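Entry type: protein chain
Record version: 2
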Amino acid sequence: MRGEFKKGASNKMVSIFMHFNLFLNFIFLFLFACEDKPKEEEIIVPPVVHQYTSYFTGNTVDKKTSPKGGVCLMGGSSEDDNAMRWFLNQSDGGDILVLRASGANGYNDYMYSDLGVTINSVESIVVKNKDASYDTTLHRKINQAEGIWFAGGNQWNYVNYWRNTPIDSLINAGINNRNIVVGGTSAGMAILGEYIFNAKNGTVTSEEALGDPYRDDVSIDSLKFIGIKYLKNVITDTHYSQRSRQGRHVAFLARIAKDNNTLTKGIGIDERTAVTIDPSGMARVYGLGDAYFIRAMGLTEVCESGQPLTWDRNGEALKVYKAPVSGVFDLTDWETGVGGTWHHWSVVDGQFNSKPF
């Protein structure tokens, strides 16, 4: 009995050991199989990379106001504070968006706190390339702005990046549907007329443009871009007297007249000088210099490639109102002005002439 008991117990222990060994083998195989099984691919959502840099100052909560419309044009160099106050006031305390393709946040504190005008926020957007024009976050910012300011720089970047994209469409919708105020300085002013010297091929001097209005660098653009009521049929120019740009501006107007068989207008503004245009079409001059309101009075006599310009019309080819600081000019008729003087401009064989009348 004792021998049989011991034998049975021994067999039982062997059986337990075998089952335990099988269990260990099963665990090993299971772990090995799990180790060999490819891990489920991890989904990583990349961060959104905007093709622009943003600098924000003010209240991050959007504020809807009732902007008063209008346009502020600045001729370059430093801004005129009183004209900029006018621009900010036209936003009715709303949100200001500064669009630029170079620079940084130089406008933020200046607009938000230095001028004493209460606004909700200032955001400067420095676009890096054309891809930024399709960024829906930037679209939202444009739709929430009560004022849009175009900084100086290179106007070709603006035309190249924004034309025929959601950017110019949304800006125009803001002007037409929400009555936002817009403005710009230097290159930012250059893009606001219906016709644009786009600087695609670089800049050009008056002597060069008058010597050959069809040089490659006399690059005049008439394709639809920013549409502003009182700047229809207008081409602007900046840094006016300081860089003697009257002559090249006349060459721009001559090209438009010749290429389109139409008589156009121009607005030229000196540095540290600004023109505000209210919704009724009244233009007022601010700053330290003069503004020039130019009308072509007849087609050119000689405007051909490789030849110097002649646009004389008995010395009266263009009629110009030179308005000083505080001067006023009516853009509804281009005839009525207060505080300024009238001049005739003309060009003979590439030589610019001016005489008062």
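Comment: Residues 54-356 form a domain with the Rossmann fold fold (CATH 3.40.50.880).
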